[in-house]
Amino acid sequence: MTTVSPGRIPDLDTPALLLDIRKVQRNASTMVQRCQDMGVSLRPHMKTHKTIEAGEIMTNGTKRHIVVSTLAEAEFYAGAGFDDVLFATPLTQDKVQRCARLVTQLEQFHVMIDSSAGLDAIKSTPLSGKQWSVFLKVDCGYGRAGVSHDSVEGVELVRSVVSTPGVQFAGLYAHCGDSYHSDSPQEVKAVGHRTAQNILTFAARLKQEGIECPTVSIGSTPTCSQPADSMGQLTEVHPGNYIFYDVQQSLLGSCTLEDIAVQVMTRVIGHYPGKNHMLVDCGWTALSLHSFGQLPTGFGIIDGHPELKLSSMTQEVGKVHAVEGTLDFDKYPIGTVLKILPYHACATACMHPRYYVHSGEDIVAVWEPCRGW
């Protein structure tokens, strides 16, 4: 939801999350064009930003064909007129009633399973006048969740889905989470290729069994930002982080630092020459601890100040040292504004109740994200 703008960036209290609207729009249009060039459908993931406005931008205004990671997100987007929503977390019995309401409310709402328990949850709640639409979560090498791509059990589970009255098999879905462990763009492409080949082979096995697979979907921002040629054989891809990007993505080759649309604005609040550090009003509740401070510049990159290191954080404050030598305190008077490029935009965005959207120094909107589960 957009709320009234406060004016200009210097007027903001800190810490504050800043979004560069031009970069957001450029990142979205670049991914749309990339998918068109590959000949695959884009089903963008909403989990990074969890806002109506970014969802509209990522779907090019259609408000259709999205992925969410929580039912709070699903209900949030459904209430704002979005449709064709995939809840991409394995379904359990405690969530089936909320899902049933969404199936009834929307033209298309899809759930995901990776076990017979998930199918049993669906069977426990038959629908009147509608069918359950079910994706199968597939493990293509990441190892977090899903049926193994080469397992007999996976084929058997799909067979059970298609034989269940009131249930429609929607397709296969895999996350390329192992791309985040890559050391080079070549490794990222190799993960994308391997994941695509594994899930396509699974779909071919289903076809041999007489089971059509309407959708074959894989995704992660690294693999979709530098896609392998074989990904063009898929039906769709489902990246999400690309709308903001972050330092982690730049290290993986997904983007440059110039593509990162999100910053955390903070101010210098204390000088401690005897300890050779200054304090800023950005702690882990404004940035997250995701990088564990392992970057040469600490927990993030202080934009325009390669000489500075965000070396540690407690709940509401952070310590800043010089990367090398003694800190020149005269360059950073108390009240000085610093802007931090986050290591992981998803984790950082989750820390903020509103995002200040700017064009240049002007705040053009304030976006309020969905929260909760």
UniProtKB/TrEMBL annotation:
GO biological process: D-serine catabolic process
Zinc as UniProt keyword: yes
Cofactor: pyridoxal 5'-phosphate; Zn(2+)
Enzymatic reactions: D-serine = pyruvate + NH4(+)
GO molecular function: D-serine ammonia-lyase activity; metal ion binding
Enzyme class: lyase
EC number: 4.3.1.18
Database matches in SUPFAM superfamilies: PLP-binding barrel (SSF51419)
A Pfam family this chain is assigned to: Ala_racemase_N
Sequence ranges assigned to domain D-serine dehydratase-like in this UniProt record: 261-359
Assigned keywords, A-Z: Lyase, Metal-binding, Pyridoxal phosphate, Zinc
Stored PANTHER family: D-SERINE DEHYDRATASE, ZGC:162816-RELATED
Similarity field: Belongs to the DSD1 family.
This protein's name: D-serine dehydratase
Originating organism: Branchiostoma belcheri (Amphioxus)
The gene coding this protein: LOC109462877
